[in-house]
Amino acid sequence: MREVAFGTPLADVLSGAEMAQPLLLGGYHGTWLRPSQLKGLAVSRKDIAAAGASIGAGVLLPLAEGWCPLVRTAALVDYLAGQSAGRCGPCRNGLPAMAEALRDLVHRGGPAGRVEELCGLVTRRGACAHPDGTARLVASMLARFPDEVDSHALGICRGNRREVFA
Question: Does any domain span residue 4?
Answer without folding.
Answer: no
